[in-house]
Amino acid sequence: MSRNLPDRPNLEFLKKEAKARLDVLQRTDAAARLADAQHALAREYGFASWPKLKAHVESAAAAAPRRSPLAGRWIADVSRSKRHPANPFRGATIVVEVIGSTIDIDDEFVDEVGKTIRGHNTIEADGVARPTGNGFVLTATWLAGNDLETVATRNGEEVGRGRYTVSEDGRMLTIANGDQLIVLDRAETRPQ
Q1: Confidence (pTM)
Q2: pLDDT mean for each 10 residues of the chain (192 residues)
Q3: Domain limits, the chain
């Protein structure tokens, strides 16, 4: 019997499948080993051996583009946020798209009087200082997989620093900027 691997094969799942296969094999052959079950499973998927199946799955995983944890639609939880006195917004939604080192952010804020303000920013998160066109220079750097730091300078002096941090479970984003901390919740389920 020949089986097709899923589009995104998972090595841990295949290991569990091989262990389950071993249990079945040992019912009829007490001398059966895990290597026998792995070999049989690999043959079912059209590979000559378990090492070849494993190498294929690992290379597919390495080649697959991973979606940034920052990408998605986020909605501010005003009750958990610490707003700056100069920015007492009522609500906010941001949509983040990440392609390589380019981060596009579309934001929509509802200010204290109910007016909707929309904006768009593109950030290159590669550690290179880039002029923003209004006298400021912005440098954005990934500190870790879930943390992005931005530093704004003007005339060579730092004038602002921000940090975007996605929680380990991917459900919450915090944006810390000076005296302001905005807490946002993911508005959609992120594909794994």
Answers
A1: 0.63
A2: 73 89 93 95 93 90 76 95 88 93 94 94 92 90 86 93 93 93 83 42
A3: 11-63, 72-186
- Distance in angstroms (rounded) separating the CA atoms of residues 119 and 111: 13
Inter-CA distances, 111 with 78, 80, 116, Å: 12, 17, 6
Topology of domain 72-186 in CATH is Lipocalin (2.40.128)
Buried b (16+ CB within 10 A) or exposed e, 140-166: bebeeebebbbbbbeeeeeeeebebbb
Token pair 């590669």 in the structure block, residue: 126
- Phi/psi region, residue 155 (left: phi>0; alpha: psi -120 to 50; beta: rest), is left
